[in-house]
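Severity: low
Component: inverse-folding endpoint
Summary: output formatting inconsistent between runs
Steps to reproduce: submit the following C-alpha cells with default settings.
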C-alpha cells in the first residue's frame, strides 16, 4: 500500500501506520480506500488478533487532505455523494472490524482524524495531543464522523465540539470519553502494549462476539427484545470450543490455548 505501513508480529498484533507524515497523515481518496481495504482484510484474517492504528511523524491525523477537499468543493453533488459514501464505508470498516482496535494518538487528531479515533474501540493519547472537530472552520461540517463522535462522547459534547471547532487537550478528551487513557509521550507505546496484552489474554472469538453484540445495543430501556438477544447470544457462545477451552484452562490452572505466547 502507498499510504499505510502494515506490520504483524507472531502474536497476531497488527500495526497499521498512516504514512503521510509530510501532510500530518491527512487522508485523501487513496488513503481512505487503503484503510477500508486493510481493516476489511484484517477482520477476515484469523491470525490477526489486535489492530493498532497510528500515524507516522508528528501527528496522528490532521483529517482530510485540503487538496482533496478543494477538489470536492469544485465537483458535482453526485461526485461528492459517492466520495462521502466511500469515507463512510471506511469508518464502518474500522468500527465493524471483528478484531479489537486501538487508536494510538499523538500530536493532533483533527476533523476526520477525530473520526478515526472514535471509530476504533479504544483510544490512547499522549498528554500533548490535541483534538478538534474542525470542519466548520472550512465552511463544512463533520457529517460522516458525527455518529462515531456522538457515540464516543454523547450528543452535547459532540455538538459543542462541532459548533465551536475549537481544539481541546488530551485531558479534556479523556474527561468526555473521546479517549480512554492519557499518558506521557514517552509512555505511549507502553500504554498501548499493556492494553494489547489484556486483549491477547482473552478468547479471540469472545472478543468478536462482544463487538457484534455491543453494536446492537443502545443506551436506554432493557426491552424484552434486548433480553432475548443477550440470552440467545450467551447460550450459543457457551457451547463453543473456545468456551470449553476457557473453562478447562481455568479449572486446570493453566493458560488457555490462545494465551500461551
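Observed output (run 2 of 3):
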Amino acid at each position: 500500500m502507498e499510504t499505510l505501513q502494515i506490520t504483524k508480529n507472531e502474536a497476531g498484533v497488527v500495526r497499521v501506520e498512516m504514512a503521510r507524515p509530510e501532510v500530518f497523515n491527512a487522508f485523501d481518496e487513496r488513503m481512505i480506500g487503503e484503510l477500508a481495504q486493510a481493516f476489511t482484510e484484517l477482520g477476515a484474517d484469523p491470525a490477526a488478533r489486535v489492530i493498532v492504528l497510528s500515524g507516522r511523524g508528528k501527528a496522528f491525523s490532521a483529517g482530510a487532505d485540503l487538496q482533496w477537499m478543494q477538489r470536492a468543493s469544485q465537483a458535482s453533488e453526485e461526485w461528492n455523494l459517492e466520495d462521502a459514501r466511500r469515507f463512510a464505508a471506511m469508518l464502518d470498516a474500522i468500527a465493524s472490524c471483528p478484531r479489537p482496535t486501538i487508536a494510538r494518538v499523538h500530536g493532533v487528531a483533527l476533523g476526520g482524524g477525530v473520526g478515526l479515533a472514535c471509530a476504533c474501540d479504544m483510544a490512547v493519547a499522549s498528554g500533548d495531543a490535541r483534538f478538534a472537530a474542525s470542519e466548520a472552520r472550512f465552511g463544512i461540517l463533520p457529517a460522516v464522523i458525527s455518529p462515531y463522535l456522538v457515540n464516543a462522547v454523547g450528543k452535547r459534547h459532540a455538538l459543542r465540539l462541532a459548533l465551536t471547532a475549537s481544539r481541546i487537550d488530551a485531558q479534556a478528551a479523556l474527561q468526555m470519553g473521546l479517549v480512554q487513557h492519557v499518558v506521557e509521550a514517552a509512555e505511549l507505546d507502553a500504554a498501548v502494549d499493556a492494553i494489547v496484552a489484556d486483549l491477547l489474554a482473552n478468547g479471540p472469538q469472545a472478543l468478536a462476539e462482544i463487538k457484534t453484540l455491543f453494536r446492537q445495543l443502545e443506551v436506554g430501556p432493557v426491552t424484552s427484545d434486548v433480553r432475548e438477544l443477550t440470552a440467545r447470544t450467551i447460550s450459543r457462545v457457551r457451547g463453543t470450543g473456545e468456551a470449553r477451552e476457557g473453562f478447562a484452562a481455568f479449572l486446570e490452572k493453566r493458560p488457555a490455548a490462545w494465551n500461551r505466547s
